[in-house]
Amino acid sequence: MSSPNLDVRDVARLARIELTDEEATTFQAQLGRVLEYVEQLGTLDVSQVEPTAHANPVFNVFREDVSQPGLDRKVVLANAPHSANNLVVVTKVIE
Amino acid sequence: MSAITDLTISELQAGFRRGDFTPADAVRALEDRIATVDPSIGAYLSRDFDTALAAAEKADISLPLGGVPIGIKDAINVLGESCTCSSKMLAGYKSPYDATVIGKLRSAGAIPFGRLNMDEFAMGSSTENSAYQITRNPWDTSRIPGGSSGGSAASVAAREAFATLGSDTGGSIRQPAALCGVVGLKPSYGRVSRYGLVAFASSLDQIGPIARTTRDCAGILNVIAGKDIHDSTSLDLPAEDFTSQLGRDLKGVKIGIPREYFVDGMDQRVREKVEAAIRQCEHLGAELVEVSLPHTSYAVGVYYIIATAEASANLARFDGVRYGHRAQNPRDLLDHYMRSREEGFGSEVKRRIILGTYVLSSGYYDAYYLRAQKVRTLIRQDFTNAFEKVDALICPTSPDLAFKIGERTDDPLRMYLADIFTIATNLAGICGISVPCGLVEEDGKALPVGLQFLGKAMDESRLLGIADAFETSQATARPPIG
Question: Could you say which of 1.10.468.10, 3.90.1300.10, 3.90.550.10, 3.30.2290.10 is the CATH number of the domain covering B1-482?
Answer without folding.
Answer: 3.90.1300.10
